[in-house]
Sequence to fold (728 residues):
Amino acid sequence: MYTPNAEPSLSEVFSLAKYRVGGNGSRNIGVLKAALEQVDDHIESDIYGTGGVIEQFQEKIAKFLGKENAVFFPSGTMAQQIALRIWCDELGVNKVAYHPLCHLEIHEQDGLKRLHHIEPILLSDKDHLITLSDVQNLQENIACLLIELPQREIGGQLSEYSELVEISRYCRDKGIKLHLDGARLFEVLPYYQKTAAEICELFDSVYVSFYKGIGGIAGAMLVGNETFTAESKIWKRRYGGDLISLYPYIISSEYYFNLRVGRMEEYYKAAKRLAEKFNRSCNIETRPRVPVSNMFHVMFSAPKEKVEKALIQVYKENGIGITGNLREYTDTTCYCEISIGDQYGMIPDEVLDTAFTLLDGKMK
Amino acid sequence: MYTPNAEPSLSEVFSLAKYRVGGNGSRNIGVLKAALEQVDDHIESDIYGTGGVIEQFQEKIAKFLGKENAVFFPSGTMAQQIALRIWCDELGVNKVAYHPLCHLEIHEQDGLKRLHHIEPILLSDKDHLITLSDVQNLQENIACLLIELPQREIGGQLSEYSELVEISRYCRDKGIKLHLDGARLFEVLPYYQKTAAEICELFDSVYVSFYKGIGGIAGAMLVGNETFTAESKIWKRRYGGDLISLYPYIISSEYYFNLRVGRMEEYYKAAKRLAEKFNRSCNIETRPRVPVSNMFHVMFSAPKEKVEKALIQVYKENGIGITGNLREYTDTTCYCEISIGDQYGMIPDEVLDTAFTLLDGKMK
Fold:
């Protein structure tokens, strides 16, 4: 129904905002064009997983992550299901363990179960991180444990490095393969003060994404040893992910990787500063209270409708978009996710301060 | 090992050729750039299968094929496995039937079997088309019959339209779903003198490709009724094919679809003319003898090594690339595939005639 004088929705307002606190900007077609401008027209396409365009980038990422080999995939969904399947086949066990809010459990329409008949054991409760004792107390025999760094759905929380080391040692002792969901791996390196290779060394297989903090169009990489990656290419073909040409994703992934992988410290520091501003506001708290990456959740102690109105008014009075996607948490609380990228640095300090003064007033 | 004076291989020669008899030219990055140049930078990406960019193109193709709905997929491998799985689930039968040289049987690393435990019954022998009596004589209960038009691996042969009608009627009577592998559907319309919708009307589900005759980067569409396509979207998510952004493939698919779908008659006629030239040459014959689409196979009655040398010499003396990929058929015969596209029309008549005079001499 056409309602000419309807109030714009929060997502509409967000898409129109002059300034946005999170993200790397619009996902428009200019994002791809900018990446392609750097590349000669005559460079040949990759062909079914072979050719310079794909092989050089795979080698670069394998090296960056300190692993033998890497395979470019169109998506992390495909890459991770395949990783778990390979480990299950290798160990002859059709069980894996992961967090209750793991991407495979809540965002993939049960692909792992429906395509592979792999049974996931859910470790920890959904509000906490998986701990060493969760792993030690596992009753079932599993092929693989999947750890997500940071745990996105609870605000991007992180285990301490020392605990990861202990979990890794325990899994190696028990013959359990350890897989890293590193969709946001680059984003947590400044907190750990480790190289990507130092983190990946704890894991048998690693998936990284090129469109989260990196801000590419789409695309993922799966890394591990030669046997593992060779097997993953066969499964990529089975899935229909071994496209004749993946270069639109490869070229853009590499371009934005080069552009942003060195900016993660900057995003992380900005996230901590921004979280402080939220935490000083009335009825607002971030999760985690002090971010450990470029991301965090903002928890509002007010019903979704009220907060939505407040956020739209802040935008109208000040031109700033805080989020376009507010989610109900309970009847009387709601939350949104903030991921800091290039956009944050473009907001003048006084505009940001005014926005928080406005928000604070409206949340009282 | 670096061998400075090594003879260039057939595929190297082909890639350097000034003229090529088949194809739409190089698959270089300029192909994507040309498609993107037409599009405004500020157009927003599709997001997980939604948004104007994907929805408008899906509607256009659904209409062109005369079906209720269409879903864009990154690949035909993914699209077709999903189509067969949906029909198997709907009928509660885990068997399908297709040709022994079906793409699912020979190019997908057994994805259908390994991911879905669907058992294919191979109909007809590998040198012939599936006939009505092959279908009538089926002993097993199957959920779905897959027909490929044209049958690529045997030179792009085609059943007569009247036989398709009879197969379709038989399948409907028996409650067997009929799926069309229409990777090259647009290419066969001039032979049938039918619209795409008239062909698709015989089938319950149809897959078409945008990088065969159309010459896009990659991408496919699955069409059918609303229930079928809705279910296919869920499976697309399970496969990891529901990318946050598919627009690089969508925009290029639509661009090259618009450019070339109207040229199929021209390619078909050129294929017939070119096949005549091959058939007049010594020890060369095309399959089919008279092409029924833009494609055919060239069968050489000589060992692969001899023919390879002959083709390289023709290129050296005349600058023309006939094929970059010669395949052994028996110890004393070999073959290649020719698909006519935009390149054929660029060859001056006298260059082509000289090439065939040369080839004829070398094949004696």
